[in-house]
Amino acid sequence: MFQAQPFVTRLSFKASDRPEAQEALARLSERYGDVGPEKAQVVVALGGDGFMLEMLHANLGEHRPIYGMNRGSVGFLMNEYSEDGLLERINAAERAIIHPLAMVAIDSRRRQHRALAINEVSLLRQTRQTAKLRISIDGKVRMAELVCDGVMVATPAGSTAYNLSAHGPIVPLDARVLALTPISAFRPRRWRGALLSHTARVTIEVLEAEKRPVSAVADNLEVRDIVEVHIGEDRDISLSMLFDAGRSLEERMLAEQFSA
């Protein structure tokens, strides 16, 4: 477990467009000062989990950690909102390092679309027709035909989001595995997915693509009418989030597994 960089004093504040987030932005900027993202040691994100994902994408390639405070709805990736003692909280915070998934999606016109996903890459049927997919891991076909509404590859950080809603497993941050989870599998009906090494390279081919069109979604970027998708973790990119002491992301994910 890593400690946040000590003696943080220079902050930059970013907020979603929700009124409560904008109000918090004004108050905190006035109280603590805002040096701008270029000079800041930590970026404070005010919003919900969706806004945290936006901020992480905006800081790809940067080593500046992000400390979120919940001014949204869910807030699993955010700390509790409080205006008091912010610098003390940040300096005592625990750091979570995450790595995104790299997606290369090839559409029906053989165009390549590249994107990064912090939570998951999902393949979803576009029409009333179920999708038919072939899944290969590291070049070897592991499932010749999966009939389903879709399938996803989730990072440990994203395993508590859409993956969990699709009955996928919660993956500890330090487990170095990815979750491969079907969405409403029809055949094989009892297949519940797989846990893969974080080094695995996943290829998903769309069968009968014209009759059964499928889209690929990397977090909030959608590519429609795909025929093939390649997915793998990009460990050359590291993203840092800060969580209050005793409320680390690892602790939250563990507690989530015992929640009712």
User: Class by helix and strand content?
Assistant: alpha+beta
Number of domains: 2
Summarize the amount of helix as a percent range. 10-25%
Mean pLDDT, to the nearest integer, reads 94
Fraction in beta strands: 35-45%
CATH class descriptor of the largest domain: Mainly Beta
Shape: elongated
The radius of gyration computed from the alpha-carbon positions, rounded to a whole number of angstroms, is 20 Å
CATH domain topology of the largest domain: Tumour Suppressor Smad4
Number of helical regions:
5
Mind describing the biggest β-sheet?
6 strands, mixed
Number of strands: 18
Strand line-up in the sheet with most strands? 1-5-18-4-3-2
Which residues form runs of ≥5 with pLDDT under 50?
A: 1-5
- List the helices and strands in order: EEHEHEHEEEEEEEHEEEEEEEH
* Spatial separation of the terminal alpha carbons: 27 Å
CATH superfamily of the largest domain: Probable inorganic polyphosphate/atp-NAD kinase, domain 2
> Judging by the overall fold, what is the CATH architecture of the largest domain?
Sandwich
Structure commentary:
There is one protein chain. By secondary structure, the protein is α+β, with helices and mostly antiparallel strands. It has two domains: 116 residues, Rossmann fold (3-Layer(aba) Sandwich), CATH 3.40.50.10330; 133 residues, Tumour Suppressor Smad4 (Sandwich). It contains five helices and 18 strands. Strands 1-5-18-4-3-2 form a six-stranded mixed sheet, sandwiched between helices. Strand 9 and strand 10 form a beta hairpin. The chain is elongated and about 60 Å long.
